């Protein structure tokens, strides 16, 4: 009986530990002309558990109006736990299907926007950096594009500050290059939230679910094709 009580206490403590633990997400995106690299890393317990998604290639398909993506996942820091690289395409049909499914789910949850907005307000942006280098080979046009980029970045930061909690001022820069055509951009973002808030949002979605089972389309996979 004592062992049963001890086991129950351990389980309760473990559940509380999960609820109050913070999930930290590191996002790193780099674009240079036709090359794109995206890395997303999920961390809990000060990095003791890590899960990484690497997308080293994002490009427009030459033969169809679709986006080609290559990537893999990795658990922890060991390369032995890295999955094989997969290749797939995101087509217009796939995106439309996913949007239709999302709309179907929204129709089945009462006050979906309220639940999502309350959860989003719990997310804290700990760090945000966005650096860009731009040039089109013409000084006047480069200056116009530089100003437009500053406007775009200001608008993005304004949207982030309205919906999320910024812990520090974002670091932004736009560097013009007047001698050649070039475009580079590098975004680094670290945001964090307690796992308990995500669990609570999920429970609310279940609680306010209505209308039975949604009619979801499942014919097309998000990523078509693998290596």
Labels describing this entry:
globular; 9 strands; 9-stranded mixed sheet; alpha+beta
Structural notes for this entry:
The protein is of the alpha+beta class. The protein has a domain at 23-90. Helix content is 36%, strand content 36%. The chain contains five helices and nine strands, in the order αβββββααβαβββα. Strands 1, 2, 3, 4, 5, 6, 7, 8 and 9 form a nine-stranded mixed β-sheet that branches. Helix 3 (112-120) runs antiparallel to helix 5.
Question: Briefly, what is this?
Answer:
The protein is an alpha+beta fold. The chain is built from 5 helices and 9 strands, in the order H-E-E-E-E-E-H-H-E-H-E-E-E-H. Helix content is 36%, strand content 36%.
Could you give the topology of this structure?
Blueprint: H1 2-20, E1 22-32, E2 35-44, E3 49-60, E4 67-75, E5 86-90, H2 92-107, H3 112-120, E6 124-136, H4 139-163, E7 165-166, E8 171-176, E9 181-194, H5 195-207
Parallel strand pairs: 6-7, 6-8
Antiparallel strand pairs: 1-2, 1-9, 2-3, 3-4, 4-5, 6-9
Helix pairs in contact: 3-5
- The residue-averaged pLDDT reads 80
Instruction: List unreliable stretches of 5+ residues.
Output: 220-227
The number of distinct helices, counting runs of at least 4 residues, comes to: 5
H and E order? HEEEEEHHEHEEEH
Distance between the termini: 53 Å
Strand percentage lies at: 35-45%
**Rg over C-alpha atoms, rounded to the nearest angstrom:** 22 Å
Structural class by helix and strand composition:
alpha+beta
């Amino acid at each position: 009986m004592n062992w049963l009580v001890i086991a129950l206490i351990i389980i309760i403590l473990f559940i509380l530990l999960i609820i109050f633990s913070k999930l930290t997400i590191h996002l790193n995106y780099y674009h240079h002309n036709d090359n794109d690299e995206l890395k997303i890393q999920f961390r809990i317990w000060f990095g003791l558990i890590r899960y990484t998604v690497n997308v080293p290639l994002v490009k427009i398909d030459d033969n169809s109006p679709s986006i080609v993506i290559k990537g893999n996942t990795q658990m922890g820091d060991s390369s032995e736990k890295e999955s094989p690289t997969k290749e797939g395409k995101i087509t217009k049909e796939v995106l439309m299907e996913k949007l239709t499914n999302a709309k179907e789910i929204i129709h089945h949850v009462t006050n979906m926007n309220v639940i999502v907005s309350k959860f989003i307000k719990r997310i804290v942006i700990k760090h945000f950096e966005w650096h860009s280098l731009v040039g089109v080979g013409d000084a006047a046009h480069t200056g116009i594009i530089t100003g437009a980029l500053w406007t775009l970045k200001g608008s993005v930061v304004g949207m982030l500050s309205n919906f999320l909690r910024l812990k520090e001022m974002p670091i932004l820069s736009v560097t013009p290059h007047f001698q050649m055509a070039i475009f580079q951009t590098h975004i680094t973002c670290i945001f964090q939230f307690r796992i308990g808030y995500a669990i609570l949002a999920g429970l609310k979605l279940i609680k306010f679910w209505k209308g039975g089972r949604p009619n979801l389309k499942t014919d097309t996979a998000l990523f078509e094709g693998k290596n």
